[in-house]
Amino acid sequence: MFRPSAVRCDRAYIMSRIFVTGVGFITSIGNDRDSVVQSLRELRHGMLRYPPFDKPEVPVKVAAPVRGFAVDSSDPEDWTYPADYRLKREVLRSLCPNALYAYCAMQQAIRDARLAEGEVSNEETGLYAASGGSPVILGRLLNQMSQQGVMRCPPLGIVASIAGTVQFNLVAHFKIKGASCGFSSACASSSHALGFAFDDLKLGRQKRMFVVGAEDGNVETILPFAGMRALSLNPDPETASRPFDVARDGFVGTGGATVLVLETEDEVLRRGVTPYCEVAGWGQASDGHNVAISHPEGHGLRLAMQRSLQSTRIAAADVDYVNAHATSTPIGDVSEVKALRAVFGPDLNRVAVSSTKALTGHGLSLAGAMESGFCALALREGFIPGSAHITRLDPECAGMNIPRETQSVAPHVVLNNSSGFGGANVCLVFRRA
Amino acid sequence: MILRPGSFCVYFRNPDNLLISLMSDAVPSIDPSPVRPEVPAKTFSPEDEVAMRESLKRCSAATVEAAVQFRRTRDPGVLPTIVLGVIERFVESELRPKLREGDDDLRLVEDLGVDSLTMMEIVMLVEEVLQMQTNNDELRNLRTVGDVKTFIDCKVRGLPLPKPTRFLPVEQVASIMPIQPPFLFINEAQIGSAGAQGKYKITGQEFFLQGHFKDNPVLPASIMLEALGQLAVLFLLEGSQAEPGKRVDPSRILFTSCEGVRCHRICRPGDTLSLSVRPRRVKMPLATFEGSIRVGQEKAAVAEEITLTFAYVDEVGGEFAPRESSAGSAARPRDVSGGQPPLGAASVAAS
User: Fold this and answer.
1) B151 and B187, same structural domain?
2) Single pTM value for the model
3) Which residues share a beta bridge with B246?
4) B128–A152 CB contact, under 8 Å
5) Which residues of B are catalytically annotated?
6) ipTM for the complex?
7) Max Cα separation, chain A?
């Protein structure tokens, strides 16, 4: 008879703590850490009337594009990007816009974490990424194939366009030798990437992981959501994205990239760096409900939050701040509120809840990593980001602590929620280091 | 078929003042008279010109003008400018000066950092500009700038493609060569239609280094010349086009003369010689080559002319067994030459 008495586990691994030691941002609210902090503190949003939407047949008017990059040309050698970055043609030729953003954010994160070349490229350092690929480049490739013939397509069109393009490029160009993989759960993708990177570090498989989220954030990634009626038709950049407001009418699309460096405690001590925060743990669960609509009671997200707290042995009452997934859609925000009520019960009125998507817009595969980066900044810099653009709070949110302004209060424990298509839900837990 | 007598290097100057050696330089079997484009010339509309100028916008002005001229006139004379201009556009700027030296032996991968994907980009742009098509298997053998130029030239003129560059490891070199260790100074070789490249690493164990010089091993200049001569022998046996039904007889290749030999660098144990020979005239009974030796990027020696004598023998039904069956047998040349090994190409050269 099987007797499960001799289950062995290496306590050293399980006890090891995991830290965020570096961040890099190319976002609609800033292309470096300091400007992102400033935008979060001052609630400066990244929305504008997006010129490519300025057509009578496009009812969506607002987007939150990345600034400082001109990447619309079909020829990457025509692209312009901030002068701090210098990319060779052989690197550029296989990049899509979001891989370029990721490349730049990666350089920032490496510098921020004070990693030497050998600490980036070794067998103990891996990279997990999430991006929806590049529909614009895939579209061009397929057009070219049908119009000019199969042998006249750019040789690297595939690696520049399919989902996975970010890790293909970054792993090759930064000479990553450890684990590498892409994650695809739509708007939960880069939270999944971070969760599994945490697991690999916890299990002792790697000592350091780069976690990357990226999206093009252009016509081709944003407008397909219009048919789903998921985008805000509000033409005013000041109010188009307003999670938890009663008048919210959909999300505003954005792009960019965020890179986080995760390291084991041993590495943090060995290198003598000051981490942003600890990654305490994570949890996930699925709605099993609808391909594109979140469960009306937020079942999957509730379970994901509960599992993340169980795994970290943190009581719900000890959570100070939740960076909500809330994208500013009528159904999604309410479903998340219900999940929060189920998890926190009477404690919910003292947990600060905000959605930074009011500032950035919704970054799809980028969202989880970008908002984890914001949580890391909040924990180190000691602030709780406000939930911008709320004029009238949705009555569904009655009694909740949703700060309208950024508070100079240092949180100790922070949750970051993400939900993706198919009802995939991920909750990440961060703790002050 | 052999090289036409007098098919010396033809040079011309393009507007960038690049000295470019034309394809007909040392490429066997090119007869420039019948220009039979593979694809009949289509009309070249103003729209085509606009599109082509857009495709070539990162190339030099000379390249663009040469391409326009080619599309109007199908003049193969402008091909080298176009091909070099397209290659230059895909090479990182710091490596471009190398390309401007006009050395057809420049290797795409090792010297110019062109990987196989960049090669695809080069070929696709050339295809677009020249309105031609290539097959994947035709591209695999392009290793040097010279290979690319020759390949494009043959394609455009509708000529058969030259024998692809072949890589010969040491065992194969030894099985082909009439010269054997300890007097064989080629470790590996690459044979193309336009010449041969080889490598020889000075081990320090060479018998003559014991006395040359006392307590100071230096490769004799005569051995450098010998190594070039041996590479020329290898080219004659493996790279040159013989008359139909004939092949070069390995037992009858001998050194005749050399001109303009200059040594630039002392070569010692541990150095790897990069040898290169290019045929200038090959017509029985004489074959004249130019040769050079580098160690890394440093010039070690040049020979303006190395001339060998040679003779043909019938390919089939003659005194030779078919070549394939004797591959791998290092003793083959000795057996068929009546036990009298040839002296080797340049072994009588003065030091």
Assistant:
1) no
2) 0.76
3) B314
4) yes
5) 212
6) 0.75
7) 73
